[in-house]
Amino acid sequence: RSLVVSLFFKAYLAISQELVKSNVIEEDAIPEREQSGAAIFHTPILKSAQLFERVCVEQSTCDPIGRPKVHASAFKQATGEAIYCDDIPRHENELYLALVLSTKAHAKIVSVDASDALKQAGVHAFFSSKDITEYENKVGSVIHDEEVFASERVYCQGQVIGAIVADSQVFAQRAARLVHIKYEELTPVIITIEQAIKHKSYFPNYPQYIVQGDVATAFEEADHVYENSCRMGGQEHFYLETNACVATPRDSDEIELFCSTQNPTEVQKLVAHVLSVPCHRVVCRSKRLGGGFGGKESRSIILALPVALASYRLRRPVRCMLDRDEDMMTTGTRHPFLFKYKVGFTKEGLITACDIECYNNAGCSMDLSFSVLDRAMNHFENRYRIPNVKVAGWVCKTNLPSNTAFRGFGGPQGMFAAEHIVRDVARIVGKDYLDIMQMNFYKTGDYTHYNQKLENFPIEKCFTDCLNQSEFHKKRLAIEEFNKNNRWRKRGIALVPTKYGIAFGAMHLNQAGALINIYGDGSVLLSHGGVEIGQGLHTKMIQCCARALGIPTELIHIAETATDKVPNTSPTAASVGSDINGMAVLDACEKLNQRLKPIREANPKATWQEWISKAYFDRISLSASGFYKMPDVGGDPKTNPNARTYNYFTNGVGVSVVEIDCLTGDHQVLSTDIVMDIGSSLNPAIDIGQIEGAF
């Protein structure tokens, strides 16, 4: 109703201005302050600039590191020639699978009747929990608290109850709608964090705590103590390519999967579990993904497991690519968070203590929610030193599809709380929040509340550079003037700094492998444990390999990520893909360089192809595997003084100017300046693309 009135008033202002132009009404009939209310937003001409460190190396040397090289698949992707999972040509006798999903949030399954579906033309089979053992049906990312097919109860809408396999997508989806399920609805249905708190619906072993210093004493000594709360909602991954999988049986007990996943090893492991075969009988391949953002790190199994089971049992290739609504219904989102905090600070604005409670909405299963909460608890202070800290964290169990990894993995939610705290302090002591930020920034040599020493901490430089680059103070004065002169249009400017820890929370995941095969013509086939999701990882790995071997990038190719080339891979996640896989590639290259060293020294003026030919005829192995494990990450600081939670931190500061239409709530971002310290970039073009894409 309010919007309708606003639009009517907007029309009144617009028509009045037309009447003024036509001299029908007086010029001062509409005050100048009111006039901008008639306007609507138009997309401005976009202007942008990217500044990065320039690498000065002679062009004659084969060293692409640090150069803005074009993404290896960029032209294929731009022209539509890049092959994704569902673009793989159909097999001769291929079938299509459609999922049968729950329509209730919390209910007992009374009966599942697929008889009408199975009578349909072209329908071959229906699979449910009755077709596998209870042990095979139990799956999960870390804790096996999920089912491939819901057996007795459903815990969210969109939970998989069964799967129909038919000749085509149309037949399969039509038949899936004819599977009749009777439910007995159960209470309570818990959706929000507040409802979970009310019903004490938490996963076991929570709350968890991180305590540093003496919070109680610090509160007693503080000039001000303030309590508040803030929340952050969920967010859809909305990758362009929905979850997809093609499974093909090989021989009597082997199966090959092409899967849109960030984690081929987990798919391999869980498919082996469901089929009761060893892992060496299952191969999972990923050529490239059309986006992932964390949504395909652990949730790909929702589709991959039914497809693999159907293919294995029917001995025929089976395919499925979820429709957008199915994908959004089944896969979960970013974790919604609720923070309740109590903060103590001096009258100058120096923060001395914080007691904060963090609640995340995990959905109906654990998935990776415990790890998301850990990172949020570690990032709640963002870049601000708080000497006395008590952080408590709860993982809430609700009747939503299981929420999962999503860009930042709990870090953005934690930093969101820090920025609220800083602005609360600034408001209460009556100071500019920029001054409060600077007063509380960590300095090099400080320790975080999880006992990690900050080395070479560049926050002040990022902060100053961003203020200068964005002309923050000049823009803020111009905004004040604009807001004074416009009643229905308002502008705002904000600055947000970030500090993000780089490493997997689980110590064993900070490892990677690589395999390099050099062929007789000198061409190089590189395989590594990371998946190309569009982020340019393969391009960076080719650059690393080219530098290490001293050859042009054109001689190197990466075909795919596959579990039969590099085993036991970690998921491509946590912003460590290029760090760990790049080091594994270097390790493999080093082994090859050692083998080729005598040949190179004997004939230094020969070409790469001549060296490789000589090595082949001298019976020197031209294949090498590489391995890397991140040192000193994830250990206990009490037993290892060098142990640290994160390998290092990336730091950044962003400033945005936004205009809103107070009548309609419409808004437009007018300008953004971002300064990121990411060390020495392997490929500035790709890294800037990632930063801009993330923003």
UniProtKB/TrEMBL annotation:
It comes from Ceratitis capitata (Mediterranean fruit fly). Residues 79-187 form the Aldehyde oxidase/xanthine dehydrogenase a/b hammerhead domain. SUPFAM superfamilies: CO dehydrogenase molybdoprotein N-domain-like (SSF54665), Molybdenum cofactor-binding domain (SSF56003). Keywords: 2Fe-2S, FAD, Flavoprotein, Iron, Iron-sulfur, Metal-binding, Molybdenum, Oxidoreductase. One of its GO terms (molecular function) is 2 iron, 2 sulfur cluster binding. One of its GO terms (biological process) is DNA repair. InterPro entries: Ald_Oxase/Xan_DH_a/b, Ald_Oxase/Xan_DH_a/b_sf, Ald_Oxase/xanthine_DH-like, AldOxase/xan_DH_MoCoBD1, AldOxase/xan_DH_MoCoBD2, AldOxase/xan_DH_Mopterin-bd_sf, MethylDNA_cys_MeTrfase_AS, OxRdtase_Mopterin_BS. The lineage of its organism: Eukaryota, Metazoa, Ecdysozoa, Arthropoda, Hexapoda. Belongs to the xanthine dehydrogenase family. This is Xanthine dehydrogenase. SMART domains: Ald_Xan_dh_C (SM01008). Pfam families: Ald_Xan_dh_C, MoCoBD_1, MoCoBD_2. Its cofactor is [2Fe-2S] cluster; FAD; Mo-molybdopterin.
